[in-house]
Specification:
Number of domains: 1
Distance between the termini: 34 Å
CATH superfamily: Clavaminate synthase-like
Structural class: alpha+beta
Largest sheet: 8 strands, mixed
Bound molecules: fe (ii) ion
Order of helices and strands: EEHEHEEEEHHEHEEEEHEEEE
Number of strands: 16
Length: 261
Amino acid sequence: MDIKILKPLGAEISGLDLNILSEDDSLKIRQCFLDNSVLIFRNQKLNPSQLKNISSLWGKPLVHPVFKGIEGYPEIIEIRNYGEQYHTNAHWHSDVTFEESPPDATLLYSLVVPEEGGDTLFSNQYLAYDDLDHDLKSELSEKKAIHSNIGVLMLSGGDLKDAKTVEHPIFREHPETGKKALYVTEAFVKKIKDLDPKESQQKLEFLYSHASQEKYIYRHKWSKGDLIVWDNRSVQHFAEHGYGDNERTMHRLTTSGSKPY
Ligand SMILES: [Fe+2]
């Protein structure tokens, strides 16, 4: 197994077939994931059953609360090109933060990739947290952000009766690394609890633009057969469109998480 460490986050792992992993390989992969937050495996051949099987390295596969899974595999969502106007992932977010216990990891496996466009960007939220000034860190350290699923329900044509909110800390401690990360997602956060609306909005706008600076970002150009696994506890991601009507098909799966603290 060859590991190439990327900057400012991520590691590319090659020379490995994920369908034949030794105990030692699994341990190395787990550690590399915690150290680098995003893993890129090239040239993998994974049918839905194999993808689900590999996901157990990161936890129990979850069924998405809104989007329906593929035949026989409710945990695996097929992401396809429904046209740019219906593209819902071109914003910075960590996955499904409107749940009490959002998924720890997301696995995204490419089946068909366009020649151009469709890059995924990942932003290192440990670094984003570290760089915040001391006063802002102490001011927001005990504050909670209110996350809502309403945007996803509206986009997916879901029942608005299912709308709900949850509260998560603005700075999240990673339960396995012990490091702190910035944890506000433009897609799902509505406001900072206990701040007046104007101040909440100003603070959030600052945090969003801070979190997505170029210096924290790794940009991935996909090839067919890439599997990427990212850590939703320390990373935000952004899915660019820019592939017109060309085909782009991915399988996506998330694994169980815990309540952020
Ligand atoms: Fe996502």
